[in-house]
Amino acid sequence: MKNIVSEQSRVYLPIAESDQVYPVGRVFCVGRNYAEHSKEMGDDPERDPPFFFVKDASSVVPSAFSEVTHITYPMATSQFEYEVELVVALGRGGRSLSLQQAGEAVLGYAVGLDMTRRDLQAQAKKKGRPWEVGKSFDESAPISPILLKTDVLVDSISKGEIGLKVNNELKQISKIANLTWSIEEVICKLSEVFELRPGDLIMTGTPENVGAVVVGDEMQAWVEHLGEIKVSVTG
């Protein structure tokens, strides 16, 4: 009998202002990397080092700046929550990177949403189980096109705002400067436990005031100097 193996289609993100695309490898996420969000989730931001979890690449939904992206309300949850995040795309990899090497590994940046089935995540946390059921599922990572790194963009983003609205009502607002662990520090720490590769995305954490959305809601997520994506929840 002949074995039939179906290959999952690879996900690609557009690179802004070009005809190039970025093939997505792994999607690493940083937990609780803004002090106020750490407090809202019951942690001590002064004590806890960064920790990581992974979304499957199939979670990524390319989201254009100029049009609304539609995602489906997921199964098995009644608490579907948004988390706006700055996303870093790596163009180089390596192990145990220095701060300088970490900065050099960055290819570009994007705006992303770490959509979460919070009730399922809470159940997993309570039982000491992995978070994948609450974090890694279809359409849980809408991400904008990647803007390639320049010195001007790096400086602008570091001073810029990050925020999210639901139905034009402001929900999340902060500054990238409020990251507990900087982008370079996050990459360094991550490279101590994983050998990083070109194609890896890093979702760098969300500010405080995460909350739920329902069918019909539209989210606007932005990082100043990168742009804004609009994501609508359908049934």
Brief write-up:
By secondary structure, the protein is of the alpha+beta class. The chain has six helices and 18 strands.
How would you describe this protein?
GO terms for molecular function: acetylpyruvate hydrolase activity; metal ion binding. This is Fumarylpyruvate hydrolase. It holds the Pfam family FAA_hydrolase. This protein is 18% helix and 34% strand. It has 235 residues and is of the alpha+beta class. The protein has a single domain, classed as Fumarylacetoacetase-like, C-terminal domain (Fumarylacetoacetate hydrolase, domain 2, Alpha-Beta Complex), CATH 3.90.850. The strands form five sheets. A six-stranded mixed β-sheet has the order 4-3-15-8-9-12. A five-stranded mixed β-sheet has the order 6-18-17-13-14, with no helix packed on it. Strands 10-7-16 form a three-stranded antiparallel β-sheet. α2 packs across α6.
How is the CATH topology named? Fumarylacetoacetate hydrolase, domain 2
Largest sheet: 6 strands, mixed
Strand order of the largest sheet: 4-3-15-8-9-12
Q: How would you sum up the global shape?
A: globular
Provide the CATH architecture.
Alpha-Beta Complex
The CATH homologous superfamily is named Fumarylacetoacetase-like, C-terminal domain
Could you estimate the helical fraction of the residues in percent? 10-25%
Report the end-to-end length measured between terminal Cα atoms. 41 Å
The CATH class designation is Alpha Beta
In the predicted model, the low-confidence regions spanning at least 5 consecutive residues are none
- Tell me the count of domains: 1
| Structural classification | alpha+beta
Radius of gyration: 17 Å
Structure annotation, total helices = 6
Organism: Marinomonas rhizomae
GO molecular function: acetylpyruvate hydrolase activity; metal ion binding
Keywords: Hydrolase, Metal-binding, Pyruvate
Domain Fumarylacetoacetase-like C-terminal: 27-233
